[in-house]
Amino acid sequence: MNQRPRCWYYRNEEFDCLKKGGSRCFAVDGENQYHAIFGDGPCHIVHPSSLAVPAVALGARFRIVGPAGEREVKAEEYYQMPDKNLFGETVLAPNELLTHMILPAPGSVKSATYDVRYKQSHDWPLASAAVALDMNGGTVRGARIVLGSVAPIPWRSEAAERALRSPAPSRCRRTNTRFRSRARP
Hints:
It is built from four helices and seven strands; from the N terminus they run ααββαβββββα. The protein is an alpha+beta fold. The chain has two domains: about 10-100, Uridine Diphospho-n-acetylenolpyruvylglucosamine Reductase, domain 3 (2-Layer Sandwich), CATH 3.30.465; about 110-165, CO dehydrogenase flavoprotein, C-terminal domain (Enolase-like, domain 1), CATH 3.30.390. A hairpin with a 2-residue loop joins strand 1 (about 60-65) and strand 2 (about 70-75).
C-alpha cells in the first residue's frame, strides 16, 4: 500500500530526478515505456501497489494513527498526485502509520480484478484494473473502475463508470471479427 514509486530514474542513484529534488523528470524525454500515461506530471512515476487498486474500487477506508491521534480517510483520498505532494505519495504526515484497511460489506456489489504482466511470476503488473459494480438484477446502479500501474495514483476511470451506469448496458456478444491494420501512405 505504501511502496515507493516504480520509476527507474527515481530508484537509480545516478539520476537527480525531480522527485529526489532535481530539476526535471527524466521520463518526459527519456526512456518512459513503463511510466504514467495518466496525470499531467510534473513527475511521471507509476504507483506500484497491486492492493491499492481494488481497495479504491471497493470504497475502502484507511485508519491512520500518529502523535495527534487516529483518523480515517477514503482510500481514493489517501494517495496524492505529484503536483500536490512531490516528495511523498500519500496523506501520511510525519510519524503517522497506516494501521487498518476497512472494507464495506459487499451487499449487492460484484467485483473483479485483472492484471497484465510481462512475466507471470515475480513481476510488477504492466497494467491492472479493478471493477466494483453495484447491481440490481441486470442493471448497474453504481460502478467504480480503477486502473493500476498507469498513473502516480490508483486511477479512477470516471468516463467508463458513467458509461456503465447510463441506460442499462446490453450484453456483449462475442464475434469472430477479423481486424486488418491499415498502413499509412
